[in-house]
Amino acid sequence: MPTPDLPTELWFIILSLLPWSYRRKVIGVSRHLFEIAMDSLYNEFRFVADDKQMVRALKQLKHPSICLRVRHIYIRPDFLPGVDTTQAMTHKRTILSFPTRLFKRRSDSTSDLKRAQEVIQLANDNLHKCTQAIALTIVLHDLDISPVPSFTKFFQSLLSIHGSRLRDLVVDVTLEKWLMILNPSVFQHLSNLTSLTIKLSGSRFTEPSGGIVKESVVASIASLSQTLESLIISTPTLIVLNPLFDGVARLPALRKFILSINIPFVMEYRVQIRPTSSLPAFIKRHQATLQHLAIRVHHCQTFLLPYELWLLNDGLDLSKIEQLELGVFSSPSLRLGNTSWSQAMASLPALPLLRSLIIHDKVLSFSEIEDLCNILSASKAMATLRHLELKIRQISPKVVDFFAQRLSLIEEFELAFEGLHLSVSSAIFKL
After folding, report:
1. pLDDT (tens digit, 9 = 90+) per residue, 253-288?
2. What burial letters (b/e) apply to 301-329, b meaning 16+ CB within 10 Å?
3. How far apart are CA 320 and CA 343, in angstroms?
4. In the chain, is it the N or the C terminus that has fewer CB atoms within a 10 Å radius of its CB?
């Protein structure tokens, strides 16, 4: 219901920027703002603790005026006991090893476990009443859930009950926890899921076989093949994902695909990236429907550039792409080998519908900026491009003049720079 001065959508944005206590005060201002403030207060329910405040919040879900307003359920059970580092770190110490009891840990006493089981049971009884929830987030890293088996049952039951209503699922877990709380049979309940975000991270203590996790992830995605429109995957290494894209069949409704890979520096050796056909083949299977594509590779040292993984591929059609994000990090000490920045970008197919281009991590010189604009013009993207983000080594009046001439149709332009270059020979600003 709109207010006389502002529409409901704007009021909701304004209230979302206010602290919790201020939003509660807005409830009594007027009848118009009562509903908006209540929706803002209870739009997201965060199950993150087992204290009295959390118990009170869970009991409030018994009231239909509150539980029916919940749209997003966020679960991060930090009250569970931590992984036993004493047993987990029995392997040979390395130069980077630290004392296992450097930080004070919460005692895994019987009373703590009993309280955790009680609050999980309370959450199990009341979160099921949030029948309007369409989004679910689970964050679970180095916590020991084996002493509290009721948590796994609670989470799987939650997916089973809310599954047909969920549209957005975010899974931020370690590889070990994926196998413990998720399996392909659980994903079969998510019959209408349109967005899936998988953030896999390595445990500091134990790690299962990457092949086992890969098979589980592939089977889980396959069960959502008919409805999935957005797939976001983040992983610390290529171990799990390297063969993943060969196992995932075509997702006919896929519109958005984001891949983020973090490759750490290993003391004994460098992580070597080999060009593979798996990722380009996956993109090629979805080129008829894909509109948003993002490839973000963050690494310390590699032998080959990240964009050689997928850019240098014949027959790749990106004519439907409207938003493209590239993570093309390279350090000054890294040799480009046979592939330069310009050659890699020139390998891009035509982008006639491109509206947004974001280039992460790569610091461009002025000549590389010129090459980029020439490539965009050749690929027919300059006529449709409206949003551009990039980083330049030095900004000068000459650079600004160039952007004003070549990017006249840009509506949103974000430019980061490392330094200023103000020489007398620079051109005058044309703004």
Report:
1. 999 999 887 665 443 334 444 445 577 778 888 989
2. ebebbbbbbbbbbeebebebbbbbbbbbb
3. 22
4. C
